[in-house]
Write a structure and sequence with these properties.
Blueprint (H helix, E strand, L loop, with lengths): L1 H21 L3 E6 L7 H16 L4 E6 L7 H10 L4 E4 L22 H9 L1 H14 L1 E8 L3 E5 L6 H4 L3 E4 L3 H10 L2 E4 L5 H6 L5 E5 H6 L8 E3 L7 E7 H5 L3 H35 L3 E3 L3 H15 L2 H12 L1
Parallel strand pairs: 1-2, 6-7, 6-8, 9-11
Antiparallel strand pairs: 3-10, 4-10, 5-8, 5-9
Helix pairs in contact: 2-11, 7-12
The chain binds L-galactonic acid (2Q2).
Protein name: TRAP transporter substrate-binding protein
Organism: Vreelandella aquamarina
Length: 322
Amino acid sequence: MIKKLLTSAVLGTALLGAQSALAADYTLRFGHLANEQNIWHQAAEKFKEEVEANSDGRIEVRLYPSEQLGSEMDVINSIQLGTADMTITGESLQNWAPKAAMMAVPYAFRDSDHLHAAVNGDIGSEIEEQIIERTNLVPLAWFERGARELTSNRPIRTPDDLDGLRLRVPNVPLFVDVWQALGARPTPMAFSEVFTALQQNTLEGQENPLSLIESASFNEVQDYVNMTGHVRSWIYVVIGRNQLEKMPEELQDVVREAAQTMQSFESELFDEDQTRLEQELKDRGMEFIDVDVDAFAEKARPAVLDALTPEQRELFDAIQDL
Ligand code: 2Q2
């Protein structure tokens, strides 16, 4: 009898143990637009590992790459509603927080150092504060991105060559304004729909950093990378403020520290990626086209200045003066 009781007690404990290993106290549903090959996803995996190990399993992170939780805009809405928790987002936040448009201004940053100085300094803090205030999302980490380049099936060297090119852009008002002014026909569309739209010729072009061009295999449906380098920018990994703050302080610290580890990890991957991407896309058969960048910059500028509100203009001028 005693033996039997003991056995069931042991069994019970074992079962309980198994159960607590399964059900964490907090689950973070982290969805983003890039696929598993992209360094954003590898960084997200690092975050998951760190958070789960350092919280002793009290936090579980579930990753959903390739817009499995919905498009970038959908996931932002879901985080606000509480049905998702984290994502990777940037200039699309302009739809809520006007200062996030600084992540979409063509030719705003001279180089990587200029960008780092802005993001790590007062300008970055101002943008982050407005993001928190207007979206209820908290930036936990940021990743530098390669410059956005235009892909197409005919070479584009000058704005005149655009000639009404049907171009996909993310859901970023400033991108629409600028590409219209340059002479293209921009359409906002979710990232996961772009490949098929290019394949079916509904679209003729898209623009993105080489990293996403490669991981999304756009080389299969686009022949040219036109080196417009039009937007040099960065992106935030964000978490819903409510989701973060409902965790005890010590777990919030685990999340924040894991995000910093992820940021350093991603930055190494980014540097490696930059030295590899152009050759990789050439090996896959894409042709790189030198572009009259000055002509693009000159034609884009009035559209930018026209689109910026006084508040945005002040921030833009501060970036230029940095
Ligand atoms: O083309 C895309 O969808 C991305 O490269 C976007 O730049 C990015 O997701 C922005 O929409 C960030 O908010």
